[in-house]
Records
---
Amino acid sequence: MSAASTALFGLLGHPVAHSRSPLIHTAALEALGEDAVYLAFDVAPADLADALRGLRALGVRGFNVTVPHKVAILPLLDVVDAAAVRIGAVNTVVVEGGRLVGTNTDAPGLARALVDSHVSLTGVAPLVIGAGGAARASVVGLDDAGCAPGVVAARRIEEASEVARLAPGWRAIGLGDASALEAAASGSGLLVQATSATMTSAAVAFAAALPIAALPADAAVVDLVYAPLETTVLAAARARGLRAIDGLGMLVWQAALALERWTGRAPPIAPMRAAARPPTR
């Protein structure tokens, strides 16, 4: 490997020590035979602009962006494409002719992950739980994939309404409105858990408050959390005999679509998926 020709890719976030992105992308770059490295850079919010200047000076070919920079980076880029503008967040930056071009692969990544799991999306009315960046990407990705207008449920209905406005026909309800939540679930073939609640000490109570029991027997439940893989929401779905899909698929596909943008090559999904999976103890 020649240092002069080695391509540089990376991840900007704070913190990033826990991220599996370097493992996923390194496995992919090795499988493709690319002379490249992928590094994680822990960048504090106050240092984001300086980090971008440094990456530009180093000739980076592309990089990913994770919390807390997905929104803050927008005004610092040369171009932000329509998909990222619609979602209001960037997770991937491509260097094109020296310009930093922001895009978002989270939205199509979710759709590809669900198709991989044999979930039919056409005409399905999803129920999306949450109002943050993951929920925004979910609504846009599912709408683009041909889903019917669905429902966004969040603790604050004002925030849910803001997310629902991203796609025509979607509506918002409050998580505290049990009857509305149950009605939305009964007409939905797909529940997307797009909050960090299943990573917290309140995970059990959060899962119990969701209308898993009201979902149709052929519904699928996806939790975008991937650590832990078996969340309280997925456990409840499996207990009902529903299809339960963890967050690794979206993690892998958003990375794969970013890699495709950077290299112009078809991403090697199998080694990326193997690298994403946490080691068994």
---
Amino acid sequence: MIDVSAAILIEAGAIFIARRQDDDLCGWEFPGGKVAPGETPEICLRRELQEEFAIDVTVGGFVGESVCCYGARTIRLLAYDCHHRVGIPECRVHTEYRWVPLSDLAGYDLLPADVPLAQLVLQRHLAEA
């Protein structure tokens, strides 16, 4: 199983998602990446968001996890609340990014591992409202 971290980055009622398009996967996701050996998911998120979007974040609390099979690979997606600190996002790996109103998130074609996390985020948002 491959551990992958994912950023739940919400500002002013909008959540940050990015469109992934490569040979294996195509769709919207919460940005992040594979946790390297000896690396925590939190450190991975800071590194990945810097490398892929040129932004710096503060990683907060654990949101939840999702386990999903993509062909022969099984990933465990670990999501954490993040807070944008510095930088204007630029796509270095993804084809695009968007700040999506939480009320519109369900209308996006999220990757299968991201769907349960989106449901958790939306449930939490409704409970806080």
